[in-house]
């Protein structure tokens, strides 16, 4: 066997192996993303308490707490409300206190009986 027959595998250049060349080809074939602002991207939610410079959460402020309760009476998660971690904890505590004092309903059954429905604002 001559030296030409032994090297029947993929040819290698001095810079690297053949796989690198394929990666570069794929990058060239992809369409470029348009630069500039995204049109329909999701906007980052901002904590309403931080935006309004409110330090604590008052359990007697039912109008503000209703924003953080679902129509079934559950406390909404941070990813839905956009509240920061600190204020979400305070909201959860305030909602539980308001429920204990019967300012807010516990369940859907209470909402049906009393007619009090959380309104988002």
Structural description of this entry:
- This protein is mostly helical and 121 residues long.
- It has a domain at 48-114: Irregular (30s Ribosomal Protein S18).
- The chain has helices at residues 3-6, 18-29, 48-51, 62-65, 78-81, 85-100, 108-114.
- The model has no long low-confidence stretch (mean pLDDT 77).
Strands, helices and their partners?
Elements: H1 3-6, H2 18-29, H3 48-51, H4 62-65, H5 78-81, H6 85-100, H7 108-114
- Anisotropy-based shape: elongated
Largest sheet, described in full?
A: none
Quaternary: single chain
Q: What's the CATH class of one domain, please?
A: Few Secondary Structures
Helix content: 40-55%
What's the end-to-end separation, in Å?
A: 83 Å
Helix/sheet category: mainly alpha
Number of strands: 0
Q: Helix and strand string, N-terminal first?
A: HHHHHHH
Unreliable segments (pLDDT under 50, ≥5 consecutive)?
A: none
Give the overall pLDDT as a whole number: 77
Annotated CATH architecture of one domain: Irregular
Radius of gyration: 29 Å
Estimate the strand proportion: under 5%
What is the CATH homologous superfamily assignment of one domain?
Ribosomal protein S18
Q: What count of helical segments does DSSP give?
A: 7
CATH topology of one domain: 30s Ribosomal Protein S18
Short account of what is shown:
This protein has 121 residues and is mostly helical. The protein contains 7 helices and no strands.
């Amino acid at each position: 066997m001559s030296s030409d027959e032994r090297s029947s595998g993929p040819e290698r250049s001095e810079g690297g192996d053949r796989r690198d060349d394929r990666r570069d080809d794929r990058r060239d074939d992809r369409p470029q993303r348009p630069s500039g602002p995204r049109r329909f991207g999701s906007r980052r939610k901002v904590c309403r308490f931080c935006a309004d410079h409110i330090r604590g959460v008052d359990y007697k402020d039912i109008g503000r707490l209703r924003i953080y309760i679902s129509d079934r009476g559950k406390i909404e998660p941070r990813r839905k409300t956009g509240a920061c971690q600190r204020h979400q904890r305070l909201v959860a505590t305030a909602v539980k206190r308001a429920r204990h004092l019967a300012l807010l309903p516990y369940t859907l059954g209470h909402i049906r009986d009393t007619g009090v429905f959380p309104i988002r604002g």
